[in-house]
Specification:
Layout lengths: L15 E11 L7 E6 L20 E4 L9 H5 L5 E4 L2 E4 L10 H5 L5 E4 L1 E4 H8 L3 H7 L2 E6 L6 H13 L3 E6 L5 H8 L4 E5 L5 H8 L4 H11 L5 E7 L7 H15 L5 E8 L6 H5 L15 H13 L4 E3 L6
Parallel strand pairs: 2-8, 8-9, 9-10, 10-11, 11-12, 12-13
Antiparallel strand pairs: 1-2, 1-7, 3-6, 4-5
Helix pairs in contact: 5-6, 6-8
The protein binds iron/sulfur cluster (2 copies).
One iron/sulfur cluster binds next to α2.
């Protein structure tokens, strides 16, 4: 899988980032009331991912096939021949050439299409997040960069963080840490708080359920912990994946050994899983990658996880924010 390199900043071309959402009034992604900027593009493929529209760096399209009248307006309007008719079927193809012009979305008579993601300049994102400045100031909140994976667009992320911090706005970065150390360091040195995801301790299970090894993730975490930047670990509690007794014990032992004596470590957030986000996969024309093993929710095992972490003396919170 290849993600395009960040468009470089030149004298004539402003730095841009691929963003798929800017969500206001978030209460679960750092302290206070926050605006969350979602970066598009991620190299991991976690089966429980709640934001499949954040996986690719290119623009995506949500298509509600059940609503579609098959009128052909989007096919006629698209300048890049991305909407096509294959016999009776409507096919969305060659998304890499989509320019985000929105003509298909705007021409659809029944709102069956939604274009997801755009390349935004630093000024455009900055303008958007400043709308809620009064809420940040009164609640102790700020701006959180999330994804996707923020570390895949390090120059854009760092420039945005630096600009916000110069204005006295609290910044948080949420990451799964699967990127080069140079990128992780470049971004994290510019933020006030890091929310670092840990999913599985066992390397084989990590490969199986996320598509990648956890060696780089753990190595980056180890290095980050030496920098004394405030850092919280986030564990998505996934039914049947990491909420078994053995894996739960493994991950808590790993955290205890890595964080001992590290002043930047502030604690663990447990995030229970629920099957809210699965519909997005069909809107993208994708099979849900984990439908064979994901079911139910993990509220009960999150409580067991909480007790196990507390009994090891680890500072831990069970989040009331569900993922999935
Ligand atoms: S946004 Fe524009 S280029 Fe992209 S699919 Fe729609 S009409 Fe085509
Ligand atoms: S314009 Fe809308 S209703 Fe018509 S074919 Fe395209 S998606 Fe379907």
């Amino acid at each position: 899988m290849k993600l395009s390199a960040e468009p470089c900043s030149t004298l004539t071309k402003p730095l841009t980032g691929s963003i798929f959402n800017i969500q206001r009034f978030s209460l679960h992604d750092g302290p206070g009331i926050r605006t969350v900027v979602f970066f598009k593009g991620c190299l991991m493929r976690c089966g429980w991912c709640a934001n499949p529209e954040g996986l690719r760096q290119e623009i995506d399209i949500f298509w509600r096939a059940d609503n579609c009248l098959h009128c052909g307006s989007c096919i006629d309007s698209c300048p890049n021949n991305i909407h096509q008719r294959h016999g009776e079927r409507h096919v969305i193809n060659r998304m890499a050439t989509c320019n985000g012009c929105l003509l298909c979305e705007e021409t659809c008579p029944v709102q069956a299409l939604k274009v997801v993601g755009k390349w935004m300049t630093l000024d455009a994102v900055h303008h958007e997040v400043l709308k809620d400045l009064p809420y940040y100031l009164t609640s102790g909140g700020g701006v959180t960069l999330s994804g996707g994976e923020v570390m895949l667009q390090p120059a854009f992320a760092r420039a945005l963080l630096q600009r916000l911090r110069l204005e006295g706005i609290h910044t948080t970065v949420e990451t799964a840490g699967f990127a080069s150390w140079a990128s992780v360091k470049q971004v994290c040195m510019a933020t006030d708080l890091i929310l670092y995801d840990l999913k599985l301790a066992d390397e084989g299970l990590h490969r199986r359920y996320t598509g990648v090894s956890n060696v780089r993730i753990l190595r980056n975490l180890e290095k980050l912990l030496t920098l004394n930047i405030p850092l919280r670990l986030r564990i998505p509690v996934i039914p049947g994946v990491n909420d078994t007794g053995e894996e739960m014990t493994n991950i808590l032992n790993l955290i205890a050994s890595m964080t001992a004596g590290k002043p930047g470590f502030q604690g663990i957030d447990l995030l229970p899983w629920h099957a809210f986000g699965v519909q997005k996969y069909s809107l993208l024309g994708l099979e849900h990658p984990a439908k064979e093993y994901l079911s139910g929710q993990s509220k009960k095992s999150s409580e067991i996880f909480l007790q196990a972490a507390s009994s090891k003396g680890l500072p831990v919170i069970l989040s009331d924010s569900l993922i999935g």
